[in-house]
Design a protein that fits this description.
The protein contains 11 helices and 8 strands. The protein is α/β, with parallel strands linked by helices. It has a single domain, classed as Aldolase class I (TIM Barrel, Alpha-Beta Barrel).
């Protein structure tokens, strides 16, 4: 079932639950994520970055997504992650994505508001939900440059939500994109203050490698969407390399990569749900 973040996240927010967002890099990854959600009867968010959108093609991504989501009775979102260019937002909306993230977090506040508001106005007319970001999660996201980031200020987050009317807010509380050398120390007090002020679903980026206990605590304090991507890309890449060394053909390699990803997605869904 195709849904938007606006249809999916408010109930999770009210009930102190979270929906997991999985970044995909191949069309087979889409199958693995959706099949995992379907088999466990749990909603999932299939997401990709602009680089993946432009490499695989919006029509191909949406075609695979719809062929599976329309078959499922579980809610499935198709989300464009960490987008800084409006042309990529428009491309995703035109192709049939149900949700987009506009990331103006590295811009001055007024410019972030202007950019995000533009996306909200167009997306709402198309029935597409919008995630914005204030503060900035450090690290390297896909083909973007390394960024140090800055933690989200609760008062600024409150103003940003009022000024933009977004559906979900990505916050920076100590996580980072990529693998961690050591488990991060999340600023739960800051998260609680943000959640108390903005009263909309919050998003945790950089979910790879965060202890499940910390993720669950963050969920109890207002996180309603948890993004996981780095570990899945690493897992599939490692699987492709290992299977190819066994002299299997291309179909065996692709099948094993999809199955490994699906298994890991199911593990993560059960860990968060349990």
């Amino acid at each position: 079932m195709e849904v938007t973040l606006k249809e999916l996240l408010p109930a999770a927010y009210r009930n102190h639950k979270a929906i997991l967002h999985f970044n995909i890099h191949t069309l087979e990854d889409i199958e693995g994520v959706i099949e995992a959600g379907y088999e466990l009867n749990l909603p999932v968010i299939v997401a990709c970055t602009p680089r993946v959108l432009n490499t695989l093609g919006g029509r191909s991504i949406v075609g695979v997504y719809r062929s599976l989501a329309d078959y499922c009775n579980t809610p499935i979102v198709l989300h464009l992650d960490h987008t800084i260019e409006l042309k990529d937002i428009w491309k995703a909306i035109s192709a049939g994505f149900t949700s987009v993230m506009i990331d103006g977090s590295r811009l001055p506040y007024e410019e972030n508001v202007k950019l995000t508001t533009t996306v909200v106005e167009v997306s709402r007319a198309a029935g597409v939900s919008v995630e914005g970001e204030i503060g900035a999660v450090p690290g390297r996201e896909d083909d973007a440059k390394e960024y140090k980031g800055a933690l989200t200020e609760p008062e600024v987050a409150y103003s940003f939500v009022l000024d933009t009317n977004i559906d979900a807010l990505a916050v920076a509380i100590g996580t980072a994109h990529g693998f961690y050398k050591e488990p991060p120390e999340l600023d739960f007090e800051r998260l609680e203050r943000i959640s108390r002020g903005v009263n909309i679903p919050l998003v945790l980026h950089g979910g790879t490698g965060i202890p499940i206990s910390d993720i669950k605590k963050a969920i109890s304090l207002g996180i309603s969407k948890v993004n996981i991507g780095t570990e899945l890309l690493a897992l599939v890449t490692k699987t492709y390399r290992e299977v190819s060394e066994l002299n299997y053909d291309a179909l065996d390699i692709v099948k094993e990569g999809r199955n490994k990803l699906k298994e890991r997605v199911k593990e993560l869904l059960l860990e968060i749900e349990g």
